[in-house]
Structures are given as C-alpha cells and as structure tokens.
Amino acid sequence: MYRLLLVQMLHCCFLVAHSCPTLCTCVYQGGSNGTGLRSVLCSEPRMSAIPLNAPADTVKLRLEKTSISRVPRAAFFYLSELQFLWLTYNSITTIHPTLELLGFALRELRLDGNLLSAFPWEGLRDMPRLRTLGLHNNRLSSLPAHAALFLPNVTYLDLSSNRLTTLPSELLDLWFPPPAQLAGPTQRRVLGVHDNMWQCDCQISMLLAQSKYQESPVVLMDQLLTCGRSGGTANQLGASLIEADLSQCQRPSVQPSATQVTSPLGSNVMLRCDATGYPTPVLTWTKAAGASIYNTVIQESPRVGIRWSIINLNGLSYKDAGEYRCQARNMAGTAEAPIRLRVVGVIAVPPSIKNKTRKAPSRSSSNNRKPLPQKPKRAQNITSISTPKKKTLLNLKYVTPPTPTNKTQSIKMAPVPTPLKKIDKAYHPLFCVRSVPVLKITRTYSYKDMFLLGAQL
C-alpha cells in the first residue's frame, strides 16, 4: 500500500517536472533529446491565469499577449531554476509584493506593455542576480525614493513610455556616484527615460548633460526628452529639453554650525551642517582620509532646496579627534565644509585665570572673624621695651689687633656686665661682649646690633 502511494507521488512529480502546460509550448534551447535549457512559451489570448504546472526545470518562461491581469503570490514558487521571466503585453494591473518566491536565480524580469500603475520595489530585495528590469509602456506616474535601495545591481532599466514627471535624487545618486564612493571601475548602466511627461528642471537637465560625457556611467537609450505640462513655463510645453530655458539650477552651499569644536574626553558631541541648493542636495560625512561615516547620522529636508544633517559622537575617545567634512551634492555640483574636533583630557587652567577666580577677603568677613587666642606675656622687670621706628646704624670701628705674643694677649670674651643695653632711649638685651686687653677695648653688642651689623654686611 505504501509502495503504491510512493509510486503515485513520484509519478506526479515526474509529470510536473516534464509535462508542458496546456496552451503552451515547451522546447529545449541549445540541445535536443532533453538536453539544454528548457523554455516555455505561452501566448494564447484565452489564457487568463498563470499556469501552475510548468516544468520545474524551466529556465525561461514567456507569457505574452494573454488575458492575465494579476500575478498571485504562489505563481512561480516551484520554479527554482527560473532565470528569465517575460510577462509582456498582457493586462497585468497588480503584482503580489512577495516576488522573492521567484528564487535567487532570476536575472531578467520584463513587464513591458502592461497596465501597472505601481511596482513592488521591495520584492527585488531577494533577487541579487537581477540585472535587467523592463517596465516600458506602463502607467507609472512616480518613482519612490526607496526604489534606489533595491536597484544597485540592475544594469538595464527601461522606464520609457510611462507618465513620469520627476526622478528622485536617490536614483540620481545611484547612477552618478561621487568619486569618493567609487571603489573600483565604474559600472555602466543603460537607462530608458524617454517618452515621459518630464518636468523640465535642473534635475532632468543634468541627467541628460552628464550622460553625454564619454566616461559617463549612464547611457540613455534615447536622448530626445520633452517637457510636459508640469514644466516651469508655457514656452516649455512640448519643447525639447535641450531647447528649454533651465534657470533653476543652483549649486549647493554648505554652512557648518561650528568650524572648530573642543570637547573633553568621554563626553558626547553633535556636529551639524546645513546645505541649500536646487535640486535639494544630499549630505554625506567623511573623516580623515575620505572614509565615509554611515552610523549615528540624522538627515532631514524640511522643504525643497534645504537639507541639514547631524552626526552624534557618544563617549568621545582620542581616536574620534580629527577633521570631519560635510559634503553636499546635487546634479548642479558639490560643496563641502570642514569641522575640526579636538578631544582633551584634563583641562589646564592658565594661572592668570586662576588668579582672577580667587576672591580677595572682604572687610566684612575679616571683621566678623573671631580673634585668635594670644599667649600670655612673660612678666618682666622692665616696664616697657620699645623698638625704634627708624632704622639705626651703629658706627662701629673695626681695629685689627696686633699679633699676640702670649696667651694673655689673645682675644677674650668677657662676661656680660649688664643684661640690657640702652640704644636710643630703649633697652635691648645683650648678645655678647668683645674685649681686647692689649688695646684696652671692650664693646658690648645687643641682638639689635648684631642684626643691623648683618644688614650692613
């Protein structure tokens, strides 16, 4: 019983893998007798739904000129080897956003000649090998800014014959990257934007002008672009973009909040710059040798022509010090402004500032101070001992004594006759007495005499 069930399951899988859907043609390209790449072509106008029994080894699937109006979620989930999907010239109006069910092998997706007014760009997230995307002859009226996030690997993009009026600046930055972001050789892209109702402004004009350079990364399928109703003046209506008067172009101008910033170690700092220009410029931050800064960056455009950006640096270290550059770029040109950040450790205060910060004691505070306790004075027999107000100089005569002949003639220090010496009506304690017996000279010296004598010497 189990063997019979297993055989039936294998037979069904064999039919799915090798059977061809009704109203379709299955062929092998590049080989015969079951070798080569399987291709399935369905072009029956009566077909109103995508067939679910296409062979699992299908590499190329073409559904053309049918009555199919929508693409459901589970339309191609079992086609793991599908590389080329053509859904051209049908009546498709909606596509389910989960296009990742197509698998990682898809390289070419063509949806030309349908009735699409919107496209699920987020569905391209899981298609890293996609290189060709055709949206010619649909009803697309606008392109979202986030579409550039899912088109980095697409080298052929056909947006012609739609109802587009403007291109987001994010797409222009993707197609014309600044030199600082070019890591290798420039990847050239083929772009179709003709037969749209373009607003003839600086943005589309610069796209046309830069595509004419020999080394341009973008090649236009058709350079004949015309101005639509949303153009600036009535004279531009239906005129060629080359003949239109495009006077709205404005190169960006950058104004930083500060050119030099000094912040202590471990603190948080914000660097800001503002830019103006038309089209609205895009701001990028770089440091030192041109390394881009991708984290902790806030950017906002309050209105057309103005954009500001802030970079937050938390917990500063010495490696954060250096020169930061804020660069503004639009289709009319580029501009940048430097901001130098200095990180300091212990801030040294100059002595002049220290002296100014010291407060001199006020009289009120000195008056309020309590007097210090004084030591009791020693009781003396002399009623008062005063110090002369003026400096008194002693006229001492120095006499060189003769060489002594015996021990009795040597200089002797006689005992102090009295404990005090009177100088200018004041008594001073004696220090020593000098006696020379040969010359019969005896002199007394007080503490003040010795002090004044030392001052003269």
TrEMBL record:
Q: Which residues form the Ig-like domain?
A: 252-342
Pfam families, alphabetically?
A: Ig_3, LRR_8
Keywords assigned: Disulfide bond, Leucine-rich repeat, Repeat, Signal
Leader sequence range is 1-19
Annotated PROSITE patterns: IG_LIKE, LRR
List the InterPro entries hit by this protein, alphabetically. Answer: Ig-like_dom, Ig-like_dom_sf, Ig-like_fold, Ig_sub, Ig_sub2, Leu-rich_rpt, Leu-rich_rpt_typical-subtyp, LRFN
* Region of interest (Disordered), residue spans: 352-383
PANTHER family reported in the protein's UniProt record: LEUCINE-RICH REPEAT, IMMUNOGLOBULIN-LIKE DOMAIN AND TRANSMEMBRANE DOMAIN-CONTAINING PROTEIN 3, SYNAPTIC ADHESION-LIKE MOLECULE SALM
Q: What is this protein called?
A: Leucine-rich repeat, immunoglobulin-like and transmembrane domains 3b
Origin organism is: Hucho hucho (huchen)
